Sequence to fold (213 residues):
Amino acid sequence: MSFEEWFHLETLPNHQQHSWYMTHPDLFRIRDRAVIRITLGSNGNKDLESRLAKTLAGSELAVWTYYSGGVWVPFDEVTWSDTHLFFIKKQVKPWEPFTLDGVESRWVRCQVRPKQVERMLEQGGGLSISHIQLKTDYLPSQNESGLLPDMLFANDVQASDDGCYPFGEHFAPYGIFSLSCEEAFSKPGSEIRLRFRMKLLREQQRRVSKNRQ
Fold:
């Protein structure tokens, strides 16, 4: 019996994937609009680092995604400048954990498009990266409102985000106003600007408003 008779040879689709994942325990804890900056290093070779950023930002080479709602979601924009990659997330949706090789975390995935690995090899080889730095920023919109707090507390009573007396109706020693925002407060070393609207009520106005209620 011939070799061809023993083995049925045919060309099948290549299902092999070339993907690159990176994670951080805090920086990718994002729900709102954001800009993620990745700085690529290649042993101090600035020319190579710049070419790396330009190559990886090209949509014809790879797709950059994050995990949300059970699927991998492409970033709305991927750009580059100097040695930096910028991923623009314009959709307000949670960046959710995904389990990869037993590690549950929030991941950025870079998936090389089909046949692009062969093309890169034909053009002189792969990509060499020695180190990576990450940074995230809130992405302002035209109606900039910032991140809303998750919860508000006046002392130990939960307050309404529509309006409240942050220290109770009367100022008192040791009064405490607390607010939480996981997305903003989970970034070590970040700079946070707090903005709020405040209205002062005279005692007589406050009594009238309370009687009407």
